[in-house]
Design goal:
The structure is a homodimer of 264-residue chains. Chain A has 264 residues and is an alpha/beta fold. In chain A, helix 2 crosses helix 3. Chains A and B meet through helix 2, helix 7 and helix 8 of A and helix 2, helix 7 and helix 8 of B.
């Protein structure tokens, strides 16, 4: 079981922000990554469709005998985590639940803003988790649906990204928030632009980092850390070449195996 | 055959710009519209995947005994029109070819800019058509990949849309173009914003209008005009409720039949 790969998936590039951190911290782990690029973005698809897509992906990753599956997508974590946990033979780690222990360790934050896709915000998954952790916290949330296409187009440092970020975040800033949660695995890519337009006293955390910490801790506790040579296999539901290029650019290393697979 | 419906499809809202004009001009025609909302947007999906999606849609519309199919999507028209024409038992009208007769009727335009999705621009479908029509025309083209998500989010009149449009169009304007072709069926929705930032002497035409003219002319010439009561049936591959709302808002009339169907 130790030697099994870690399964990880997202609709597109966002999941790479999680895999990049895991690759950095866990040099001997192998990964099977699935990018559902035929359906990207998930943020504005219906929960019913997202459940169909994730059911097929969980089945696919289980068939590759992974030891753990990371749902590296906040939208899927928000609307389908329970179904996925029922369907999977191996543990499922989402990117939302790891926030709980962070808030318990950092009780000073009492005015928290969450940004994410339409679906993540509508699901109120963050609101429920935060309320259950500390009912004294005031929560503000805002859907930022253009961030994903801006990032997928590589425009995260462009003037368009700055204007859009100001438009989305100005209201949140006025509420004197002390913590901003980047509730979408794409958003670490646009973090520098966000940093420039919000006051310095606001702490920014991203769900990709919290999920990474949670996975490392799980593998250590359960003595599941691998100690052999790494392999990375990537599967996508659309054209593999462009995704390979984007992956190599983002991870900063060559990736040899990117294969298209249509899940039914 | 006269009484058969007109089949029409797009990945999302864009196709409605064509259907709206047809509804207006042809009060006795019935329509079967398919919106491939599980895969929207098509603009950044691979040609191979778009061919798979459109193959299933053409089969679906043919099974509903339509008299004609309108590919109300420039991306699909650019990358898959020949395959669709081979697969369909009824005529296929794309949104790119109708430009030919417009250019023949308006030979004064010699510096033409085309804007569209990444796929449409990469395919060079417009370049080939324009060169074949009049080799004296100089063509400039620019992919505007954020316009579709901006429109799908209802932000077409927002400051974000203005900044993005300026960013995309400034270079084209510098080339002293005389005609701007909106080469994506979504773009008529953002036309007012575009108008405000380009010089008044540049004529704007949209492919939705050209395709509408072409369809009306085809039906008249082939004596296929209907004279009975209209029916509109809409099918989508994702959640029907949101699409129903968007359709009603855009068409300005109640729509009763929106049904989800998954094509295999």
């Amino acid at each position: 079981m130790k030697k099994a790969s870690i399964g990880i998936f997202d609709s597109g590039l966002g999941g790479l922000t999680v895999m990049k951190q895991l690759i950095h911290h866990l040099p001997n782990e192998s990964f099977i990554f699935f990018g559902d690029t035929a359906h990207v973005p998930y943020g504005n698809k219906s929960p019913a469709s997202i459940k169909e897509f994730t059911t097929a992906i969980i089945k696919f990753l289980n068939s590759h005998s992974v030891k753990l599956i990371i749902v590296a997508c906040n939208t899927a974590s928000a609307v389908a985590i329970k179904e996925m946990q029922r369907q999977s033979q191996v543990p499922i780690v989402g990117v939302i639940n790891p926030l709980k222990s962070y808030l318990q360790a950092n009780p000073q934050y009492l005015r928290i803003a969450v940004i994410g896709t339409q679906n993540t915000v509508k699901s109120k998954a963050y609101d429920h988790l935060i309320e259950n952790t500390n009912s004294e916290i005031t929560i503000f949330s805002k859907a930022c649906p253009l961030f994903v296409p801006i990032i997928e187009e590589g425009l995260e440092n462009h003037q368009i990204a700055k204007i859009t970020a100001k438009e989305y975040l100005n209201d949140l800033i006025k509420h004197n928030i002390d913590l901003l949660i980047l509730g979408c695995t794409h958003y670490p890519i646009i973090k520098n632009t966000i940093k420039k337009i919000i006051p310095e006293n606001i702490t920014i955390i991203d769900s990709a980092t919290l999920a990474t910490d949670s996975v490392i801790s799980y593998l250590k506790t359960n003595k599941l850390l691998n100690n052999t040579a790494r392999q990375i296999n990537i599967y996508v539901s659309d054209e593999p070449k462009q995704f390979q290029k984007q992956t190599e650019k983002y991870l900063g290393q060559p990736i040899s195996n990117v294969e298209k697979i249509i899940l039914k």
